[in-house]
Amino acid sequence: MISGISITCFAASYAVVLALEISRLFFRSGVRWAVMVGFTGAGMLAHTLFLAYRAAHAQGSPLSSKEDWYLIAAWVLAGAYFYLACFHARNAFGVFLLPFVLGLIGVGALAADAAPFAGEPASAVWGAIHGVSLLLATVSVVGGFVAGLMYLHQSYHLKHKRPPRAGLRLPSLEWLRKANSRALIFSMPMLGLGILSGIVLNLVRRGPQPGGVAWNDPAVLSTTVMFAWLLIAVLAGWFYRPAREGHKVAYMTVVSFVFLVIALGIGLLIDSGHGDLRSRRGSPGRSSVSQGRPGA
Amino acid sequence: MIFQVVGCSHRNTPLAVRERLSFSGTQTRQAIAEFRQTFPGLEVVLLSTCNRVELYTAGEEGPPAPEQIADFLGRFHRIPPSEILEHLYSHGGEEAVRHLFTVASSLDSMVIGEPQILSQVKQACQLANEAQCAGPLLQDLFQAAAKVARRAAGETAIHQRRVSIPSVAVADFAQQIFERFDDKKTLVIGAGEMAEETLRYLRDQGARDLTVINRHDERARELAQRWQGKARSWDCLPASLAEADLVISTTGAEEPIVTPGQFAAVESARGGRPLFVLDLAVPRDFDPAIGGRPGVYLYSIDDLRQACEKNRTERDKEIPAVQRIVQQETEAFLAELNHRHVTPLIQQLRQGWEKPKDEELQRLFHKLPELDERSREEVRQAFDRLVNKLLHPPMESLRHASRHGVPRGLLEALARLFQLKD
Fold it and tell me: Which one, of B143, B164, B149, lies nearest residue B107 by Cα?
């Protein structure tokens, strides 16, 4: 029965929830919240079972294909939305968050043709660290971007003396600024760990032979630039008080998101060989420096 | 079974009279106990708020006349009944039910949509319960009223639209900027009445740290003392502005007391923290250009008035929806109540048919001993279906008739036709 669950099942559930969230702008309903939570719960369940099934039947390391990587990122964001929908029900988080959940699922579905990476035992641990840390950094940057968008929207309305619109109530600027700031601070070490583990993974896989992923690989370069940006943003917040101002933090998360899109885009669109060490070494198994993360 | 409400409210009674007729909690307990002694056959709930005093009664016997209620209120408050009677309104039956539902949903409040009335309605019923003055009729009525209020709050935005300047300032703006207020510094410049009203809302939200600045130190100290804050001299204005998170300004100054240049001097000391400024003074105390600075949210009295007006318009759009809920719930409550009158007769009718059915079944099974258990069950079910089908039309007629009141004529006719007891 579990094998019958498809991406469409949970994507459709999230799409229904997004439609319900948008409907808050137009009319009130006493049962909408319960329906939204029900659909999100059903979507999460299907999503979890789908990933669990794939992990159990993976050809390579569990959940280490591009498709899985995007679907797990979407799963983490959907979980965050589920929590917010349950405990901050008055705020319309879904209008901002769910499009990204659906977007990640969509990208995952587009990357479904890519073959899974085969993890060699020696590099499996480093591959997992590499994949998970970059996944958490990505989720954090997306979460920060969503909070940044909400901050800028809320701030714009308050500056223009507009009371909150019924159906589109957002958290306070103080809450959003904290969420922004934490997302920024969390994503920096995660990305750093991802890059570091990628270097170790590269060395482990390459061994004494020449080759491996080059330092000037576009995916490596874009990720390193993104890390440098996050480092500067975090340090600026620590040592320069005005940089902690809500708008500035929101803009920093927006810029971080732009870097993320570039890095992911390179991973998806440019065939740099990053993540496909097998082809260079001619070994039969498909392995990857990015072990589950495209473009890194 | 008749519900009645007799009382007065802000709609028809001046504040001076309402003040004299109002009841404290202790007085309410005493009053309803006395009322029960005078009218032992009646349930009673007394709803006393700053906007209304209403006595809800219910019982099988006839309700007291408004004159009797005026006598009762007059005796209790030592006011001549004639002075009270002219202010009293009275609603009975369906109108009384509708009135309570309208009150509980805040449609009859001075500020439509204010949420406190529901807790006051619940508290009145609880007091009457504790004093054993409210029986099943009024308990059901007040529970239904609470349901109406919950529906109005859940299905409409009637409670979400604030229309007073201080409430809009705090709920629609300050709460959109700050998550909590207990760690925020509030600065009051001047000592206007509106500032105090706004402080009341902020205090409700947890604001504690208050500084008052006034050109007259004495007035600053007075206000600070009333609100457990601290007073500072006028010279400390720039330093206080640098520390503050919320500013309420209500001076009578003819020129802005904070210009963009002065604000720029304190801006760097603020370190980018957001600043919420309520400029309630006319002419304005803060130069409007300050509102353009990053992190500064500046609202003048006109901005707040516009927001109030917008909210009022939006809120008024919700009124028909709440009225529909009141109407639906009134009809449902009365139908349910009337149905209770009909239920005993329906039960008797059903029992009256059950007995001959069972007798006939027994006779049949006795005559046909060859029937196995399965066949017997089929026969039993056929008889049950027959009885249900025969009873369905009269029951539907009763149910339908009870929507519009107790169908006494129909009940009598059925009782006589089927020889049912009372």
Answer: B149
3-state SS, residue A282: coil
Q: Measured between alpha carbons, how far is B76 from B38 in angstroms, rounded to an integer?
A: 13
pLDDT of residue B102: 95
Show the CA angle centred on residue B295, arms to residues B294 and B299, nearest 5°: 105
Instruction: Report chain A residues whose CB lies below 8 A from the CB of B311.
Output: 163
Q: Which of A134, A243, A224, A239 is nearest to A181 (CA)?
A: A243
Nearest to B179 among A28, A175, A242 (CB): A175
Assess B309–A contact: CB distance below 8 Å, yes or no: no
Strand partners, A268: none
Other Cβ atoms closer than 10 A to A227? 22
Chain A residue at shortest CA distance from B297: A159
Query: Does the structure show a pLDDT above 80 at B279?
Result: yes
**Cis status, amide bond into B283, omega within 30 of 0:** yes
- How many angstroms separate the CA atoms of A50 and A46, rounded? 6
With a CB cutoff of 8 Å and minimum separation 6, the contacts of B413 are none
Q: Cβ neighbours of residue B10 under 8 Å, at least 6 residues apart?
A: B18, B51, B52, B110
**CB neighbourhood size of B199 (10 A):** 23
pLDDT at A31: 87
CA distance B121 to chain A (A): 23
Catalytic residue among B50, B125, B133, B236: B50
Q: What is the DSSP string of B296-365?
A: EEEEEHHHHHHHHHHHHHHHHHHHHHHHHHHHHHHHHHHHHHHHHHHHHHHHHHHHHHHHHHHHHHHHHH
Contact between A174 and B151 using a beta-carbon 8 Å cutoff? no
* Closest CB to A163 among B294, B295, B310: B310
User: What ipTM was assigned to the predicted interfaces of this complex?
Assistant: 0.80
Whole-model pTM: value is 0.72
| A162-168: average pLDDT | 80
Determine the distance in angstroms separating the CA of B217 from the nearest CA of chain A, rounded to an integer: 33
Q: Give the phi and the psi of residue B246 in degrees, each rounded to 5.
A: -125, 135
**B156–A contact, CB cutoff 8 A:** yes
